[in-house]
From TrEMBL:
It comes from Streptomyces sulfonofaciens. GO terms for cellular component: endomembrane system. NCBIfam families: PRK06170.1 (NF004816). The lineage of its organism: Bacteria, Bacillati, Actinomycetota, Actinomycetes, Kitasatosporales. InterPro entries: Amidase_CS, Amidase_dom, AS_sf, FAAH2. Pfam families: Amidase. Residues 10-450 form the Amidase domain. This is Amidase.
Length: 479
């Protein structure tokens, strides 16, 4: 667009035409906003003609359904709120618009954002562009599917259980879970909930893209404190990446977890990245005594996640959790048992778990004096077939022919989430079945540019986004 080879109107019309042609099969865009998008594109072209330039001026983007956008419904997939329309844009939507982005519409999510898939009664099921019988992931699955299919260049999502990283891994695109607290979240709230500047525990909002550089571009638009709170007194200055050359990076590679095995396809992706690091001259290790205990990390994450997920349920439900948890054997340390005990947490229990989290955070600080990044899986498998069993605790995940509890696959996502570390999801090739496989690059707290820079360097060595057969990009959207 800067060189005049293409206009925002052309890009926007291409994206809309593609959505209208291909999204019947994928169902990524649940709330289109094409009239306003075309008007914004015309305005962007006029602004550029006047000599204006902004970071995203004229770029077509999508927004996860859970963000408030004036004039469009925000439902979180809950049927009782299908007609709720907010009167104020979420802060990140406002930042997209201020940067010049053209918002094409909203992308699909699971019910209450609480699944690794993306389906609900209002908008139906989103399919993976690589294999329509499989999920694109969740809860930012609609955004990842939209990117893979060429429905816009960028998207914004959210992450508490890998909701940015898992869809990126399943769909072969990029995503970045920022450091906890780095990106303001106001207006990414359940329907009818006041859009207040709340400090969330575990949860973040962040960027998704088809290239690593675009992740950095979008993070720069999104990052920064809420002007109603910390922004009153603080400005953001992210430190530069620790290194610019691959040969200067010190990287710890992990592929095994004590709670669940890593499937062969994902293991191959981790090792493909490890080999590229070694070939590029990076210092790579597989073990270190500085690594916080993975079993305790998964237990803490599970306790914090599930205690928060049920905190607003009726007191009768909480009492049922307490009764069931009291009936568990003290010897049962499975993640199923940890989940149930977490749902029965008292405030005293939460404070104790939070104190242990701070010890883990300190452990990560020590690790990052010796390493610059950690490479590890996002989930144990590539995208799995749709599973709409309404009881999520009854579902199972198949890892190379062996079944495990569905939520056990969250342990890798929780490795970065529990201490609040930044993590960048990058494509790492295809499985033998032709499905995308990704890995995550975990970095030091508030040094988000370090894993993002490593993602760029890996993209140069092993390649990045590949378009699925059902989602080959039109020429005007390439690059």
């Amino acid at each position: 667009m800067r060189s005049g080879e293409v206009t925002s109107v052309e890009l926007t019309d291409e994206a809309i035409a593609r959505i209208e042609r291909d999204d019947k099969a994928i169902n990524a865009i649940c709330v289109p906003d094409f009239d306003r998008a075309r008007a914004a594109a015309r305005g962007a072209d006029q602004a550029r003609a006047r000599g204006e330039d902004r970071p995203l001026l004229g770029i077509p983007v999508t927004v996860k359904e859970c963000y408030n956008i004036v004039g469009l419904p925000t439902t979180w997939g809950m049927p009782m709120y299908r007609d709720f329309v907010p009167t104020e844009d979420a802060i990140q939507v406002a930042r997209l618009r201020a940067a010049g982005a053209v918002v094409l519409g909203k992308t699909n999510v699971p019910l209450r954002l609480q699944d690794l898939q993306s389906f609900n009664e209002i908008y139906g099921t989103t399919n993976n562009p690589w294999d329509h019988a499989r999920t694109p992931g969740g809860s930012s699955g609609g955004s990842a599917a939209a990117l893979a299919a060429g429905f816009g260049a960028l998207s914004i999502g959210s992450d508490i259980g890998g909701s940015l990283r898992t869809p990126a891994h399943f769909c072969g695109v990029y995503a970045h879970k920022p450091t906890l607290g780095l990106v303001a979240n106001r207006g990414m709230v359940p329907p009818t909930t006041p859009a207040l500047p709340v400090d969330l525990d575990l949860a973040v909002v962040g960027p998704m893209a088809r290239t690593a550089r675009d992740l950095t571009l979008l993070l720069d638009v999104m990052a920064g404190p809420d002007p109603l709170t910390l922004g009153v007194a603080h400005d953001l200055t992210l430190p530069l990446a620790r290194h610019q050359r691959l040969s200067d990076f010190r990287v710890l590679v992990l592929e095994e977890h004590p709670f669940i095995p890593t499937g062969s396809a994902v293991r191959a992706g981790v090792n493909r990245v490890a080999d590229a690091l070694v070939d590029g001259g990076a210092h790579v290790e597989r073990h270190t005594p500085l690594l916080p205990d993975l079993a305790e990390a998964a237990t803490l994450y599970t306790q914090l996640l599930f205690s928060g997920s049920v905190a607003r349920l009726p007191v009768e439900a909480y009492e049922q959790f307490r009764t069931r948890a009291a009936g568990l054997s003290a010897d049962d340390q499975s993640l199923d048992a940890v989940r149930l005990r977490g749902m029965a947490f008292s405030h005293r229990d939460w404070i104790e778990a939070n104190d242990r989290r701070e010890l883990h955070r300190h452990g990560w600080r020590q690790l990052f004096t010796e390493f610059d990044a950690v490479v590890c899986p996002i989930t144990p498998t590539p995208a799995f077939p749709h599973d709409h069993n309404p009881d999520l605790l009854e579902r199972r995940i198949d890892v190379d022919g062996v079944e495990y509890p569905y939520f056990d696959q969250l342990v890798w996502a929780g490795l970065a989430t529990m201490p609040g570390l930044p993590a960048t999801a990058v494509p790492a090739g295809l499985s033998p079945d032709g499905l995308p496989v990704g890995v995550q690059l975990i970095g030091p707290m508030f040094e988000d540019r370090t894993p993002l820079r490593l993602a760029e360097l890996l993209e140069q060595r092993i390649g990045g986004f590949q378009a699925p057969k059902q989602g080959v990009l039109p020429d005007v959207l390439r690059g």
